[in-house]
Amino acid sequence: MDRRQLLLALAAIPLASNASFAQNSGAAAAPDVAALARLLIGRPDYSDVIIGRAQAFQADLDATFAARLAGLVQAVARIGSKDREAVIAGLSQAEVATAVQLISPLYLGYTGSPSTTSNIDNSRFVTFLKALMYEPTADNVPRPSYAHGGPNYWTATPDGVKAPPMPADILEWGDKSPKAASTYATPDPRYVVICQGHAKTLAEAEAWLAKK
Amino acid sequence: MARIPAFSALSVAALLAAAPAIAAPEGADPSLVEKGRYLATAGDCTSCHNNPKTGNPFSGGYGVGSPIGMIYGPNITPSAKTGIGSWTLDEFSNAVRKGRGRGGHYLYPAMPYTAFSGISDADTRALYSYFMLGVPAAENEAPKTELAFPFNIRPLMMGWDLLFGASGGKPAAQAPESGVARGKYLVDTLAHCSTCHTPRGMLMEEKTGSFLAGAQLGQWKAPNITSDPVSGIGKWSEDDLFRYLKTGYVDGKGVAAGEMGLAVQNSFSKLTDGDIRSIAAYIKTVPPVNTGAKEPRSGWSKSAPLPVDKLESPLEQKDYKAFITVSNMSGAQIYEGACATCHGYDGRGTPDRVMPSLVGSSAVGSADPANLVMTITDGVSRTVHGNHVLMPVFKTKLNTSEIAKVADYVATAFGDPSHRVTEGDVQRVYGGGREVSWLIANAAALTWAGLAVVVMAIIGLFVAWRRKA
Amino acid sequence: MSNYDADVIIIGSGALGANAANQLAIAGKSVIMLEAGPVVPRWKALENYHNISAKRNWCAPYPNVPWAPSAYTDGYIQAKSDPDFDYVTSYLRVVGGTTRHWASACWRLLPNDFKLHSTYGVGRDWPISYDDLEPWYVQAEREMGVVGTGEEDQSGQGRGHYPPRSAPYPLPPEGKPYMLQRMQSKLGPLGYQVTHEPHGRASRPYDGRPACVGNNMCEPVCPIGAMYSGDVHVDKAVARGVKLLPESVAFKLEKGEKNRIVAVHYRKPDGSDHKLTAKVFIVAAHGLETPKLLLVSDVANSSDQVGRNLMDHTGMSMNFLSDEPLWTGRGSVQHGCIVNRRDEPTRAKHSAIRYSFRNLVPNVDVTPDLLKQGLMGKALEDAIRDRTSRFMNISTMSETLPSPTNRVQPNPDRKDSIGLPGLKVNYHLDDYVRGMRDQAQHDFANFIGAFNGTMLDAPTGWRNQFHIMGTVIMGNDPKNSVVNSDLRTHDHENLFLCTTGVMPSSATVNPTLTGVALSIRAARQIAKEV
Predict the structure, then answer these.
(1) pLDDT number for residue C372
(2) CA-CA-CA-CA torsion for B173, B174, B180, B184, nearest 10 degrees?
(3) Which of A170, B206, C104, C382 is 20 to 30 A away from residue A80, measured at CA?
């Protein structure tokens, strides 16, 4: 990136954030922000319209985002690599936070925090079909609402899993289904402590039990 | 019309068992029953002779909707009272192969006797044996077919029969047992493929030289299945044809829906693999007929869905009207809501292909949108080898304009982009074969004009309607 | 010429109201069905879902209309609950009702659930028994196309095939997902029987519905219509001549001579008021909205029980990471559960429990955390795959008892766009529910221990399952109940209430199937009378 391109990028960022309402209808991200996002997500063809929405909506949520993003563009230019992992490794902690802010909507498909119990929240839609978080698992689970296979595809052992030995007839329901033991096991007291919320880990649980 | 309740097959069988004195009709041979059962399946007799009220496969009452009125399939169980129990072999043969009812009256060619004319004597006897001895008698007075003038004058069929009554040829001396010859025998006679797939001439006869070149079938289209590589299915392999007839589904090529779905369900899928292969082999030899298609309707490989960033647009909760309003939805949006969850954003179905790919499917690739529109409209319901495949009916969920929009999107995004579909196209499809309706509409006048024979020829049209639900 | 607008007017077009409408239409009655909310076709709801941000908000794909606010509308429900528990519920005001966004568990109650008081000395008995309702369960299961196996003991007490059935489930069970195979393999030896969850997701094509193919989105809308929802019977009822009036909010039932209901008044979004008359009225407007309409109309409440005895399945939930890949999210959102503690003697002291295995695609649960940790690139994508494969949620359905102080009332201080009141809810957890905590936490410890799990969210808080019961409670005594076993109000001979609000016990299972069975039964009774 040369100096002129950088200046252009810097000029474009505040414009883009001011124009967030327009992004709803599909204005694209500034070219180097789009290029940066594509580099960080490792998808050279990713839509600059969707990146534009992510950028604009994040700027709306956080007034410091636009300036930090400009800084990130500079930092990545400084690193001067096209290798995603090398670029990520070269970022400071603060730059990582900004980078995550840019790409998080591309993985999740939204900005803000969607509520599960109210129609009022600060979340906004960025994408669903291009939400990247479903891609690493696409062989095993559907992007919800889209079909993954025919009826009962789910009985098979998932890709990449070596199923431990299981009782015969484990696939059956009803009479043929394996029967449970007739008495209950006594739970490991450490897990009881964890379930009671007194500890997060087994070590913490042991410590809690020892004190008690 | 008063109806006598049909006995259940079980109770009839029990009655028969309790009355061993009933003698087998002359000409019926118990050793031929199983063969006859198989031939009845190959002839798909049940499709028009079933009783829709009880589900009995042969006790009659199924109505074939035709442009000039309902033609009801009669009871062909061996009930002496309401069926064909007292028919002789000759009478049976005349009805099946010559279109003459008991007592010599003329049958309407909703009964495909023009094709059945080629059935061998031996097979006719086997069919007779099955219907007399292998089918439980069931009482059901099927509704009488009562057509309006001039179609109610059955003797007028005589002239038409003289001209066109034996397209299936003369009875085969002997039914071939295997190979292309076997396939030809089955296709030309029992399977009566030409009934739906061969276009009709001026007098509504099956056009010579256009054998299996495609015809209108109610609202659906029975496509060109000649070996023409572009207009027909010359690019389908024998194996493709085998799988299609056996299962109703060849990934990336075609799905059997509408009447063909029923034909696969009730007939083809139940034939022996050998017979299905023979049919496939013969179909491959049917002379090509170029019906003017610019490209094959199946096998399209490109998918061009609307790009995601043009398809998706953020909805805001406070804009509640946007959550309700459907009139401004594009074809792509309707597709995404109503179709994509099974067929995929890219129209390629699921990786395991249980949900069919639209890309390549003949209904999608055809320049004639009829079968695409009708599949969306009526869905698919086909049970083959115990496996029920169902695509829901969408006519109750989408209006004509929405069906047009989504059909247009599917046809252009997953097929040839030049195959636009308009609401007018959808209405035309729903209207069915229109050149026929003029003749039918003017039938009485034409009759009075002394063109009775010509008009009665139109009844040949029934044949094209015979499978229509 | 009739002097009435219809034989029967039904207020509400959910699964219960629509089933009643369908039965009455079959019987040849003229029926009008009012619905506060709008028509939203399935494909449109799905298109909405695809373009909203809150993918785990089951109300979000449906319009939040100002004239018919619902559970998630800001301020519509003002609830008082406990310091460690927020009362939240979830329902839809839309044609087809709340089953548009359910997961379709279709359980029968157990015989003991009908006689909780006489068996365990707590709660109330029903005025009818399991045997009385059994034939109607069969009908409801056929209407809804329920999938299940009759070969299991759904009470978890070693009673063989239980509860008794006079007819098999209409559809056979679907395949068991890998995750449940693992649950059963590891929890069986610890004493817990993994059983099939009966549900309304067709395992084969049924009644024009395709077979479920596990798109993993029962909630908030089944994308392919494999799952039963109330709009199925709205469509059937309308095809049989029932007149559906959407966007018509009933706000008053008018009393006439002999304490009969003579008219319903409803308001359109434009504020205009309208009135309809009928021989019989059915209120089928959800367990919270039904008592609201009765209270603002001052009907059916001589017992002072309308709106009281509010029950839910308020319980606990645990998220953990297993030490082995389980891959939840393959299949539909739930397939199986543990019923061992559904009918134990401890019901005399504390809530019965049913454990439910959630089977949602968990990417949206695990990814925000990983991003917060600053992961990017391959590390992020590997972590998404790893965590998604090991994420697991197990929750309880816990039984609550009818308590007159747990109640819903109209809230005149909050008005919607057409001037109708909001809701006030008082709902506190008593010792009976809280008493199950220790049992549940020990069971949860066995579950997470079996998978050497890493706890993400411990089962320490409380949450509702949005199953509303008790608010127009059924009983024989007009002094302490609202309706009789025909769902007829004690106070008004021609007013019936088709809602799960009539249920006198909550048990540990989703109430909709029971509600539909009761509605069909009531409709057949009404059909005999009009």
Answers:
(1) 97
(2) 60
(3) C382
For residues A29-38, average pLDDT: 94
Find chain B residues with C-beta within 8 A of C236's C-beta. Answer: none
CA–CA distance, B161 with B456 (Å, rounded to integer): 10
Q: Among candidates B327, B295, B315, B306, which has minimal Cα distance to B408? A: B306
pLDDT of residue A158: 98
Q: Which of A129, A121, A162, A163 is nearest to A145 (CA)?
A: A129
The beta-carbon neighbor of A195 closest among C74, C382, C458 is: C458
Its ipTM equals 0.96
Specify the number of domains making up chain A.
2
Tell me if chain B has a CB within 8 Å of the CB of A120. yes
Query: What are the tokens at C82?
Result: 């406990």
| Domain assignment of residue A212, given as a range | 184-212
| Closest residue on chain C to B344 (Cα) | C215
Tell the CATH topology of B308-431.
Answer: Cytochrome Bc1 Complex; Chain D, domain 2 (1.10.760)
Q: What's the mean pLDDT in A54-74?
A: 97
> Pick from A101, A132, A163: which residue ends a domain?
A132
For residue A92, give how far its alpha carbon lies from the nearest alpha carbon of chain C (Å).
11
Cα B117 to Cα B107: distance, rounded to the nearest angstrom = 14
Which residue in B234, B239, B364, B248 sits closest to B287, CA to CA? B234
C-alpha closest to that of A145 among C50, C42, B11? C50
Which of C:148-207 have CB within 8 Å of B? 204-205
Residue of B310, B313, B340 lying closest to A146 (CB–CB) = B340
Class of domain C154-216+315-399+430-461: alpha beta
For chain C, give every domain's residue range: 1-59+92-102+107-145+229-305+469-530, 154-216+315-399+430-461
Active site annotation includes C265: no
Q: Which residues contact B442 (CB under 8 A, 6 or more apart)?
A: none
DSSP annotation string for B258-307? HHHHHHHHHTGGGS-HHHHHHHHHHHHHSPP-----SS-SS------PPP
Distance of alpha carbon A88 from alpha carbon A76, whole angstroms = 9
Tokens 């969408």 correspond to B394
Q: What is the average pLDDT across B182-203?
A: 90
